[in-house]
From TrEMBL:
This is Lhr-like helicase. Keywords: ATP-binding, DNA damage, DNA repair, DNA-binding, Helicase, Hydrolase, Isomerase, Nucleotide-binding. Residues 275-421 form the Helicase C-terminal domain. It comes from the Archaea. Residues 81-95 have a biased composition (Acidic residues). Residues 75-96 are annotated as: Disordered. It comes from Halovivax ruber (strain DSM 18193 / JCM 13892 / XH-70). PROSITE patterns: DEAH_ATP_HELICASE, HELICASE_ATP_BIND_1, HELICASE_CTER. Residues 36-235 form the Helicase ATP-binding domain. Belongs to the Lhr helicase family. Lhr-Core subfamily. One of its GO terms (biological process) is DNA repair.
Length: 964
């Protein structure tokens, strides 16, 4: 470190240095030493450092210094009233505009920043204020009349500010833009929108200094370019990995855990996790416990509540007041720990944190560093954390991520390139603010923003044409000009945010009639059907009814705390290709050792020298690999893919990460479906592609696709497969809203998936929806590279008979252990009781005269017709009267013939399997075809039969159309 870096504060003026001395800042922190010199020189700068290391002061001290210096210079030259020594305001200063914007992605950060920056403002006589969606009209008016020097705000509020004439005048004085958590914004459409907004601010104010504050990312240069719009950017980065001490532990079950399991009425393995986290919290004064989903936070929170432990729950679905309350309680020491999701990743001030627990693999290196980095920071001390793992995949993944974190091998931010709905969003905003605008001028502003540097003018004009068709703007092609239309202002104010609009459903307790919370639309359409169970406010609820018209989900409480948490887990954090490959490398190292006769302990001893874990944890995970070798099954590694099959289930074991496996899975599903004429079941995780194929598909057919498919066709095959998918339709609805095609603000009715996809194909909206699916969920380039490696023998493909130890380690990968696929006894009993109380229609398909409406529990073991004695009895849904009419009709329409055929199929099942068939077909979404599969599966006990029914019901709930 140079003397200049060590004396960073000497780059600041006397007023700021005096304030530093008054506050006791005698020694700059590491980011301050590195970044204050270029910042004080006015350079665009990206500061990369952990949360709590003084990043905010690093950015703002030079900004405050510039504001103070500029004011002093203005007084010296007579541009402002007052004498040289007076730092007070005068009436002349009221015409000054905003000097700096501090942009944060969360309103909660606004609150923290205001608390931190107001002290500096008072000390330096620099006015500081905050503006966001909750700011009162009175405060907004005051800010327009007398703008503060520094305004703390959000990306969306900047959009609103750019619409006001007086505020735009005030923004013309802008000198600095500070973007906090810039890595988070760079990876989102909110950030893409902000990048254009910053160029619009340049149009008003001229060049401004841009300062970015970021967690560690793998591509700092790209994030810097995102920040500056391709202009020069100084990067000042703290090596976070060397200051992180992480241990990976999987608890072994103890006698105490068995006692705890009885007390909590939960599984022993879950009890062991609760016990280990409890013990870690007890060893430290203040601990953050990060989990990957809000459901897990609620589920663990309910367990700790049962134990009366002072541990709070914090996630984005809680009300603002509830979040503030637990933040304040934690900060005051009234809570020993906070169970939190990504809501606590972004620098919300909760005071001193001694230790961080990550429950289950953090999935990504960047996420681990961001979370563990919240601990410590008293003058560059080490941040300590523990990853608590739950199974073999979890452990191998976690140790790979922990090692990569120490080495600084971090993922790229994942910048959204060329989001066309953001372009569609910003063009009306530009025209509304600036008036009639030439196409070239608007294109120049948009394409200066880094994510849109490659946007072609042709594509830009396609977007303009679409906006013109939707009457959002007027595109005068003859004059090459964009003008406002009657709908422009309405569109702009309804679309200040790029966060997708989703309806919320109120959750009402049937017993009390009161509202207990809300659920978002995506949760309801994917998961919420009668009988499903979820947690809200730390309590279990069973869904009784979903009223889409009123937007209400009616529920009843469940007393049994062992009830499961939702199987729906929201957007899964994707495990990157490189992390999955390292898991493959660990297997590569272990394979010859086990084949040579080494035991788990010996292999664990060798791994322990390279990975931050204990021998017991590593041995537990390695037992999965030892069983694979003992069974003489090939080991899936970095250069070997292993196919296994049992019945209709095919598993492609491949260490390729979420996105690559999802892409390959879609290729296999599409081509096998084309070959068989049947739909192919598909489920993926970072290490497996699980397929359910018809019996006509041979294992060799799967191998042939991997060995013969042209890698250049991957993207086309996947895109064709997306055409009728709910995932694409859901995104298309959101994108088309930003283009004004659905005009969501006027209450237009929803379109069906098919109509939406058909209506918008060959439009920029469709292209953007496809681009977004690829960006978020898929990696066609990596998948094509895998096919090339297979076809050039760099990767071998081997097949094995039956299921393997590694292959059966799936299903739960990425899902919470607290929501196991194998539901416990209480849940199985719930499913059994529900189905037995369901009503069915029994119809004799032989004489067609006899019909009975009854509950499943009253159906005899082998139903037969009392009229004719036939056992060909169809079991139908209680509302299937049209099927009864179809069976009895003498002259049938095409639809009635199909209904009659299904009824005869159902009757054949009942004739062969009796009441068991009635039970299976009474379940939700289980028709004759799926019922036959469930019935014909070999199983050890009746519980397994009901587990298979439950899995099928969940699958049905997940794949229902978003708009029926």
């Amino acid at each position: 470190m140079t003397d200049g870096d060590a004396a960073a504060f000497t780059h600041l003026g006397p007023t700021v240095r005096e304030a530093l001395s008054d506050r006791g800042f005698s020694t700059p922190t590491a980011p301050q030493r590195l970044a204050i010199p270029p910042l004080a020189d006015g350079e665009n700068t990206l500061v990369i450092a952990p949360t709590g290391s003084g990043k905010t002061e690093t950015a703002m001290l030079p900004v405050f210094d510039d504001i103070v210096s500029a004011r002093r210079e203005a007084r010296r030259t007579g541009e402002l009233g007052g004498d040289d020594g007076d730092s007070g305001t005068s009436s002349d200063e009221e015409t000054d505009g905003f000097r700096a914007l501090y942009v944060t992605p969360l309103r909660a950060l606004n609150r923290d920043m205001l608390d931190r920056l107001e002290w500096w403002g008072d000390e330096l006589d620099v006015s500081v204020d905050v503006r966001h969606g909750d700011t009162t009209q009175y405060q907004r008016s005051k800010q327009a009349e007398n703008p503060p020097d520094v305004l703390i705000t959000t990306p969306e509020t900047i959009q609103a500010m750019l619409t006001g004439e007086r505020l735009r005048d005030a923004l013309a004085d802008l000198s600095h833009i500070v973007v906090d958590e810039v890595h988070e914004l760079a990876a989102s459409k909110r950030g893409a929108q902000l990048s254009i907004a910053m160029e619009r601010l340049v149009e008003l104010a001229g060049p401004v200094q841009r300062i970015g504050l970021s967690a560690t990312v793998g591509d700092p240069a790209a994030v810097g370019q995102f920040l500056t719009g391709g202009r020069p950017c100084e990067i000042r980065e703290i090596d976070v990995g060397s200051n992180v001490d992480v241990t990976v532990r999987e608890p072994t079950v103890t006698d105490e855990d068995r006692d705890l399991a009885g007390k909590l009425m939960t599984e022993v393995t879950t009890a062991s996790h609760v016990r280990l986290i409890r013990d870690i919290v007890a060893e430290n004064e203040s601990t953050l416990v990060f989990v990957n989903t809000r459901q897990t936070a609620e589920a663990l929170g309910s367990r700790f509540r049962e134990l009366d432990l002072p541990i709070g729950v914090h996630h984005g679905s809680l009300s603002k007041s509830a979040r503030i309350e637990v933040e304040d309680d934690f900060k005051a020491g009234e809570l020993d720990a906070l169970l939190c999701t990504s809501s606590m990743e972004l620098g919300i001030d909760v005071g001193r944190v001694d230790h961080v627990v990550q429950y289950q693999s953090p999935r990504q290196v960047a996420r681990l560093l961001q979370r563990i980095g919240r601990a410590g920071h008293r003058m560059d001390e080490v941040s300590s954390g523990t990853i608590v793992t739950t199974r073999a995949d979890d452990t191998f993944e976690a140790i790979a991520i922990a090692r990569r974190a120490r080495q600084g091998q971090v993922e790229d931010a994942g910048i959204h390139e060329g989001s066309l709905d953001v372009v569609a969003n910003q063009v009306p905003a530009i025209v509304h603010s600036a008036g009639d605008t030439f196409v070239d001028d608007a294109y120049e502003i948009v394409s200066r923003a880094y994510p849109f540097r490659d946007l072609t003018e042709e594509t830009f004009r396609d977007v303009l044409s679409e906006l013109h068709r939707n009457r959002i703007v007027w595109f005068d092609e003859a004059e090459d000009r964009i003008e406002t239309s009657g709908s422009t202002w309405q569109y702009v104010y309804a679309n200040l945010s790029m966060i997708p609009d989703e309806e919320t459903y109120e959750v009402h307790d049937i017993a009390s009639g009161g509202q207990i919370g809300t659920l978002d639309e995506r949760f309801v359409v994917n998961f919420a059907s009668p009988g499903e169970i979820f947690i809200q406010r730390g309590e279990m609820w069973r869904i009784a009814e979903v009223d889409d018209d009123e937007g209400v989900v009616k529920v009843s409480p469940i007393e049994d705390p062992a009830g499961e948490v939702p199987s729906w887990i929201g957007q899964e954090i994707p495990v990157p290709y490189d992390v999955a490959q390292e898991v493959g490398e660990i297997r590569t190292v272990a394979e010859p050792q086990f084949a040579g006769g080494a035991d788990e302990d010996a292999v664990a001893r060798e791994l322990e020298t390279r990975y931050p874990s204990d021998r017991e944890t590593l041995s537990s995970a390695l037992s999965q690999l030892e069983r694979q070798i003992d069974a003489e099954h090939a080991m899936p590694t970095t250069d070997r893919i292993v196919l296994e099959r049992q019945g209709r289930d095919v598993v492609v074991n491949a260490c390729l990460g979420h996105k690559t496996n999802e892409t390959l899975g879609r290729v296999l599903s599409a081509l096998l479906g084309q070959k068989s004429g049947s739909s192919i079941g598909l489920e993926t995780d970072p290490y497996r592609i699980e397929l359910e194929v018809p019996t006509s598909i041979a294992t060799s057919d799967v191998v042939a696709i991997l060995e013969e498919t042209d890698p250049g066709h991957v993207e086309t095959i996947v895109e064709l497969g997306l055409k009728n998918s709910d995932a694409l339709a859901f995104r298309l609805a959101q994108v088309s809203g930003k283009f004004g095609a659905l005009k969501r603000w006027d209450g237009s009715a929803r379109l069906s998936n098919d109509r939406l996809l058909a209506a918008l194909e060959d439009t920029p909206m469709y292209a953007e929806a496809v681009r977004e699916v690829f960006h978020e969920d898929l990696d066609p380039d990596a998948a094509a590279g895998v096919l090339e490696s297979i076809q050039s023998d760099v990767i071998t493909v081997e097949t094995v008979r039956g299921r393997t130890s590694i292959g059966t380690g799936g299903h739960s990968s990425g899902k919470e252990l607290l929501a196991p696929d194998n539901a416990d006894a209480s849940i199985i009993q719930t499913v059994r009781d529900r189905i037995r109380d369901d009503r069915v229609i029994l119809l004799c398909t032989h004489c067609t005269e006899w019909l009975s409406r009854t509950k499943v529990r009253r159906v005899p073991e082998q139903p037969e017709c009392p009229e004719c004695g036939s056992t060909r009895i169809a079991s139908l849904n209680p509302w299937a009267d049209e099927v009864v009419d179809a069976v009895r009709a003498e002259e049938k329409s095409d639809e009635q013939r199909e209904q009659t055929e299904r009824a005869f199929h159902a009757a054949s099942l009942v004739q062969s399997h009796g009441k068991q068939a009635v039970i299976a077909m009474a379940a939700r979404g289980v028709g004759p075809h799926n019922a036959a599969r469930i019935i014909n599966k070999l199983r050890e006990d009746e519980d397994e039969f009901y587990r298979d029914i439950l899995r099928q019901e969940r699958q049905y709930a997940r794949t229902q159309s978003f708009w029926d």
